[in-house]
Amino acid sequence: MADRLIVKGAREHNLRGVDLDLPRDSLIVFTGLSGSGKSSLAFDTIFAEGQRRYVESLSAYARQFLGQMDKPDVDFIEGLSPAVSIDQKSTNRNPRSTVGTITEVYDYLRLLYARAGTPHCPICGERIARQTPQQIVDQVLVLPEGTRFLVLAPVVRTRKGEFADLFDKLNAQGYSRVRVDGVVHPLADPPKLKKQEKHDIEVVVDRLTVKAAAKQRLTDSVETALNLADGIVVLEFPDDHDEHGHPREQRFSEKLACPNGHPLAVDDLEPRSFSFNSPYGACPECVGLGIRKEVDPDLVVPDPDRTLAEGAVAPWSAGHTAEYFTRMMAGLGEELGFDVDTPWRQLPAKARKAILEGSDHQVHVRYRNRYGRTRSYYADFEGVLAFLQRKMEQTESEQMKERYEGFMRDVPCPVCEGTRLKPEILAVTLAAGERGAKSIAEVCELSISDCSDFLNALTLGAREQAIAGQVLKEIQSRLGFLLDVGLEYLSLSRAAATLSGGEAQRIRLATQIGSGLVGVLYVLDEPSIGLHQRDNRRLIETLTRLRALGNTLIVVEHDEDTIAHADWIVDIGPGAGEHGGQIVHSGTYRELLRNQNSITGAYLSGRESIATPTRRRPVDRKRQLTVVGAREHNLRGIDVSFPLGVLTSVTGVSGSGKSTLVNDILAAVLANRLNSARQVPGRHTRVTGLDHLDKLVRVDQSPIGRTPRSNPATYTGVFDKIRTLFAATTEAKVRGYQPGRFSFNVKGGRCEACTGDGTIKIEMNFLPDVYVPCEVCQGARYNRETLEVHYKGKTISEVLDMSIEEAAEFFEPISGIHRYLRTLVDVGLGYVRLGQPAPTLSGGEAQRVKLASELQKRSTGRTIYILDEPTTGLHFDDIRKLLNVINGLVDKGNTVIVIEHNLDVIKTSDWIVDMGPEGGAEGGTVVAEGTPEDVAAVPESYTGKFLAEVVGAGRAPARAPRRRRKVSA
């Protein structure tokens, strides 16, 4: 049946022989609890088989160059198309990749500027152009008749040398005069030039007067000069002088040349000339990166209240050299009149400048030797900035480089100012009427919406329009798709490495739509992640458009709007892990709402819900963190306060500045102060209120491990305690086994046949590699002797094979182990196996393993937790469990700050900081702050509009009588 996609007997991971019948050319949503088997069915079964079949259809020669998927554990799949996966894990970290390059818009822009751009001189700004000999002659003949001029061929331009051989050669060719450094000499008696001085030499090709009869002679002379001087000719008018009294000159060129004679380093404009990844276009200073490392004085002196003796200058405050540098600064102090026991803030400006930048003359340094005698010497005082820059360039140690980079910040390249391109390339512009003329770098700096408007307004001549018409159509098409997926706030120059997982996925989605493929199976992983509710509608329209082209879309998603707009919904469950892997529902949205066995249906229909709190925690105005003068990226020098001891949600549309404020500034400052980290915070004035906290815990979206050797037991550290417990058994003591014996990562206790993997990889050349259980250990990972040690009747391998819930019960008497496992159960991971390989965990599971790893640490009541979209990959029911854990932390006096779009989390928060109003350049301010009810009442807040629908129903929760006052700098 060509109109159906049929799956029979899918058993990958926890799937229990799933049979599925899906409509093709439809938008299909896979939903269910985290860990229920959605990704196993969508990615590891359907996509993997579609990709594998396509690759197998190619020749054996082609297959060896392509990564092949393993054959999934499924009986058969029918009606399968070539498959394309769009997930969130493959974000490009190459510093040379930008939004423009990965969407290919920049490739078309390079073509547009190369063919239709107007080049200018980067020095004087005059328009430059190439001219044919006939065009040059025509320009000369329009001068008044009788005008006298010399035709000169510039053969040497500002070069050192004597050039005697050149004079002899020109004389032999029949030329009689040459102009050297502005003075005409006969070639029969040329001047003696100094070898070490720079000279200008022009051959006098002809002396002419403007008249119609001289046209042929003028043409011949111009062509001769162009051939002699590599495409350049200069005319000198002896009867017409400039303001300095020198004869006026006019320069012409067959190549791109400045009319004022400024030297240019560009010949023909080609698309490669506009590439910062090519030596033809890249800025020579930063080789196309646009940035360089530069020492930041704020990082060198992180605490201005410290004295020099206490280590105010951080690079000179640690290690065995600290005393030496303190003596050097004391010597400088004698010269400039300051003391090393003076706080940095109170030092005179001259002293601070000398310490940072160095002293012009030597300082007198005194010290006591080991015999107590005073000794002295004179030494140069280099200055800490130059010291760090020099050490950075000299060291070959990666560890030391990392240390020195901790005092440096990425700053725009001083030559290209961050644009990555040569000055000559930046002087090529396109004009758009009232919007003015812009270079390719300026266009890429615009937001995508402004970029689209600028290109629509281009004023091109008939010739340029004929050349650029098709190119502009391709550019606008791709920009339109980026706008459709809610990325209008991004710029084409935005580095790919700075994109969130959701942004990167939506860019790939827009690129796929731009490809215009038909009959393809697209498998997407939560495309709504990182997207505000306001932008959800456009994303759904984009998915619908992709389907309308004649494609099948399988979307793994928890978003209510996306589920409601799907043609077909597959709910997988009923539980997670061992309790999941079955089809609970396969049908329409209306049928799902009526399905009594579906947890998803229960939440969507309102039978189950996450309740809005009836009372919110009071906010103490005396206990708060305040970021003053935040101005990194698009933040506009804002002051933002975060109350302590409550749950705060930072909200706002994509690109409004949430991550910059919380991750780049606040979290970095907290990590440096509380966790002794060496991070470079985003630009800000100061952060106050740090004294109320003693520990920072961050949980972000990065994976917990990329190898099968990493698992929940190893990541959380509980495996160390389990190995110690096994080593303490009587049998282990008799045999002399240490905890290391029970590790599958080192020799001794592991099975050496499979080196502790439990499986053997068999390479099949042109077929996918096959993994089979190790014949020696039968997949147990350990050797026979190690497996003879038991704890309560279980081997170490059997313990790793337990579910976390089962293991928590098994180790209940051992409080040190039980606490770890109980925390994993509390965050909803009881179904996961203790030794489950990290790569098989879903994104939501991996993030909760990290959260549990931090939660099990003893809380002091003064800990701040920063969570970046913790609901990623979570079902409604998983979110309820997560909120229980988060509220438990806050109830103990801790502070939790979450960056979040999920309304269930936002409505249960005690405080909201809503950023906006838009993304990119139109964002970077605080639109609203306060309780959810306060924010819901702010008409300018997009978050407030959606929040009003969920907190407005029923009685508004009670809240503390204290009102939040405006924070001043």
Which regions have little confidence, pLDDT < 50, spanning 5+ residues?
Answer: 953-969
Count of strand segments: 32
Report the top-level CATH class of the largest domain.
Alpha Beta
Indicate the proportion of strand residues: 15-25%
Helix content: 25-40%
Account of the protein in words:
Helix 15 packs antiparallel against helix 16. This protein has five domains: 4-91 and 502-605, 3-Layer(aba) Sandwich (Rossmann fold); 133-254, Ribulose 1,5 Bisphosphate Carboxylase/Oxygenase; 293-412, ABC transporter ATPase domain-like (Helicase, Ruva Protein, domain 3); 624-704 and 843-951, P-loop containing nucleotide triphosphate hydrolases (Rossmann fold, 3-Layer(aba) Sandwich); 712-840, ABC transporter ATPase like fold (Up-down Bundle), CATH 1.20.1580. Strands 5-18-19-3-20-21 form a six-stranded mixed beta sheet. The chain has a six-stranded antiparallel beta sheet with strand order 8-7-9-6-10-11, covered by helices on one side. The longest helix has 23 residues, at 462-484. The protein is of the alpha/beta class and 969 residues long. Strand 13 (363-368) and strand 14 form a beta hairpin. It contains 33 helices and 32 strands.
Briefly characterize the structure:
This protein is 33% helix and 20% strand. The protein has 969 residues and is α/β, with parallel strands linked by helices.
Notable characteristics:
33 helices, 20% strand, Helicase, Ruva Protein, domain 3, 6-stranded antiparallel sheet, 32 strands, Ribulose 1,5 Bisphosphate Carboxylase/Oxygenase, Rossmann fold, disordered C terminus, alpha/beta, 969 residues, globular, 6-stranded mixed sheet, 33% helix
